[in-house]
Amino acid sequence: MSLHEIIFIILSVVSIVTALGVIISKNPVNSVLSLIVLFFSITCHYVMLNAQFLAIVNFIVYMGAIMVLFLFVIMLLNLNSELEPQKRNWLKYAGAVSGGALLLVITGILRSASMASLDMNTASDIGLIKNLGNVLFKQYVVPFEISSILFLSAMIGAVVLGKKD
Amino acid sequence: MTFLGIDLLFALEKILLISAVLAVSLVVAMYCTWGERKVAGWIQDRIGPDRAGPLGLLQPLADGGKLFFKEEIIPTNANRGLFILGPSLAMLTACMTGAVLPWGDTLTFGNTQVSLQVADINVGILYIFGVVGLGVYGIMIGGWASNNKFSLLAAVRGASQIISYELAMGLSLIALLMLTGTLSLKEIVEQQRAGYWNVVYQPLGFFLFLICAFAECNRAPFDLPEAENELNGGYHLEYSSMKLGFFLFAEYINMFISSALMATLYFGGYSFPYMDQIGLDGNWLTILGMGALFFKTICFIFFFMWVRWTLPRFRYDQLMKLGWKVLIPLALVNMLITGALILWQQS
Fold first, then answer.
1. Domain spanning A1-80: which CATH class is it, in words?
2. Would you kindly state where each structural domain of chain A is located, as residue ranges?
3. Which of A16, A157, B31, B171 could be disulfide-bonded to B331 (CB atoms 3.0-4.6 Å)?
4. Cβ–Cβ of A57/B160 closer than 8 Å?
5. CA distance B194 to chain A (A)
6. Which residues make Cβ contacts (< 8 Å) with residue A136, sequence separation at least 6?
7. Which residues in chain A are closer than 8 Å to B126, comparing Cβ atoms?
8. pLDDT tens for residues A148-157?
9. What's the confidence (pLDDT) of residue A116?
10. Between residues A165 and B79, the one the model is more confident about
11. Measured at the alpha carbon of residue B222, what is the angle toward residues B221 and B228, in degrees to the nearest 5?
12. Where residue B333 falls among pLDDT bands split at 50, 70, 90?
């Protein structure tokens, strides 16, 4: 077994365990903390694929910003198990059935999709920041600008909604 | 010799380098606590610590020993695991940043060249930015797990302060990156070695970065998360013994690392004027360069302390107003001017 494989297996185990932890743990703060560790292991997966820019952006945006806000909100909500309203049983069954249906659909798609195999040993350089920038600002400059305008309008919308008392 | 495809000599070199960087950060942070009190004493016309050893130089050891032997108290209603995780995370994130800073040029031993930088990754600045963002978790988790309203308030303050100032910090960095065209810290230093220091081209950017560094380190005048007269001590209110020590210590490590970062980004890092003209070569030049970097870092640390003992603390709304309504627009203007100048120069 090469070092790559060993690290990959460890990371995958961490990812799956923490992903389960997000949905299984009863305390919402623990859920959020598991989600943070999950994002960290995904960042490590990106590094293994030599996608350094994607890795660091995932690190900054998801771990550093979004999860801080999640934690922020959940800490302030002060959730207690005694105060939480009991969910009805049929709601749980409906959730399980619809979740299972979604899982089936996703597995079906993934089975039929042709996955281009990625060779781990011949590291591709497309994930390095220079190459990625060249692709984004030359080949895909129009979609890139459109999505940035979309983000800007979403930001302005959020501020406008937040200001309205 | 290889094991699992890794060259063992390479691994040994990196492990030694990591240990050295870690040891230096810890020792410098230790003596920052001594320096802080000496500077405070000097500014307030007192003597400062002078009992433990000559000039009070053993004071940090005495403090550390005291903190280790104090009784450790974990509050009954605190979340035990997270209560311990808080200071651990604060220390971890503080120590992680030093990995990408170039502490010097290369040293040559016989045929092997040892670069005095643990990892020259090509997203170096973004890495530092990411790890700084993680620093907030230590404060938030520690403050929440204490199950105390003052700690929670301080944790929330810390989180919103760090997120707000991260924006202005990132924007001021973008202007610098437009100028250098690289994210690798080593290359940024090499560029400054050949030309002028970046602070000449980016005075406003440096000023904004400096202010944001104060806020990110929770240093006065932005030490709102530990405002003792409003919050009884802040996020580490319930902590005792070395866990409290780790929180305070992490702050000093952060101060050291951000001083070194500012020296690297804006003041030439390990390069100094006339470096390539004085006729020294190889290892001596590298060692002199390291000395130069440490001198610059210590100047910044002194500046941090000087400001702390000079300026009063901001009010919370003033802090937010400064961050969002002054620093971010200024950083945007700085970015626009830099971009326009670069375009004008190219055409």
1. mainly alpha
2. 1-80, 87-115, 127-165
3. B171
4. no
5. 23
6. A144
7. 53, 56-57, 60
8. 999 999 989 9
9. 64
10. B79
11. 85
12. very high
Give A92→chain B minimum CA distance, Å. 29
pLDDT for res A165: 65
Q: Which residues of B touch A (CB under 8 A)?
A: 4-6, 79, 82, 121-123, 126-127, 129-130, 133-134, 136-137, 140-141, 144, 152, 155-156, 159-160, 163, 166, 183
Long-range contacts of B57-61 (CB under 8 A, 24+ apart): B59/B33, B59/B34, B60/B30, B60/B31, B60/B33, B60/B34
Give residue-wise pLDDT tens across range B107-137: 777 777 777 777 777 788 888 888 888 888 8
- Could you check whether the bond before residue B221 is cis, i.e. omega within 30 degrees of 0? yes
Query: Do residues A36 and A67 lie in contact, with contact meaning Cβ atoms separated by under 8 Å?
Result: yes
Do B188 and B136 touch, CB atoms closer than 8 A? no
Percent of chain A with pLDDT over 70: 85
Locate the domains of chain B by residue range: 74-346
Q: Under an 8 A CB cutoff, do A56 and B155 touch?
A: no
Cα distances (angstroms) measured from residue A117 to each of A55, A106, A121: 20, 19, 12
